[in-house]
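#onboarding

Welcome to the new folks! Below is a worked example of what a typical request in this channel looks like: someone posts a single protein sequence, and someone else replies with the predicted structure as tokens. Don't worry about understanding the tokens yet, we'll cover that in week two.

Example request:
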Amino acid sequence: MKFTQLPLGARFEYEGQVYVKTSPVAASGERGGQKLITRYAVLRPLDAAPKPAPRPARSLDEQQVVAAFEAFAADCARLLDQAATDATQHRLLRTELDAARQRFLDALA
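Example response:
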């Protein structure tokens, strides 16, 4: 690991000594004293990487989701109706769009 990748306060081993990162360019030795550490020095971190805090579960109102999706599906159908020039292609695409809409709604059930 490179020195620049360590957060401030992280413990690491460098050249057989244990240090704590105290600034973007310096570290304090475990036995005292400061040392400038080059940006690209290869070192071994001693602290486990902190785990990110779990994100709280987000609840969604099913009626709002369905309403938003129905509005989206209606927009898609309207755009398809405006863009389709070939009647056969239009029917096929509209059938696929309707089937995709139903699969989405079934997945919510």
